[in-house]
Amino acid sequence: xxxxxxxxxxxxxxxxxxxxxxxxxxxxxxxxxxxxxxxxxxxxxxxxxxxxxxxxxxxxxxxxxxxxxxxxxxxxxxxxxxxxxxxxxxxxxxxxxxxxxxxxxxxxxxxxxxxxxxxxxxxxxxxxxxxxxxxxxxxxxxxxxxxxxxxxxxxxxxxxxxxxxxxxxxxxxxxxxxxxxxx
Length: 183
What we know:
This protein is an all-alpha fold. The chain is built from five helices and no strands.
């Protein structure tokens, strides 16, 4: 009787590769909840109260935050093997800009969420969740930028994992921008 030996060769690089993809998959389902709420409440539109007049968040802050997070993902994507710390620091600064913009929109949206109908409820919920994710990205990028103990190969692998998460956040930001500001 032959026995099959199962080996689990999970190196730190492989664990990082798998872990960030599991994180993104879980977060995708999390953000799909907001998409469903947006579509459902908009379709329901009780008494024409989906998006009352004067309940618009700042288009300028939305545009700046979208540009910042997309540029952060682009910077990480095109960072060379040598400029890992510099590219990560630039992506960190851009992600901080997006974080501040979403923080301002969450705590001073330009309208009262209690009188903003379904639109206001979805906006405030999404803004809080997205802000929390941006803070996580800021922490992650900061740890890469200042990690002096890591060798170059480890920094490149860590930056690659952060790129996956930042690209995911950029995609969520694009969809949110279209739904919140353009539609």
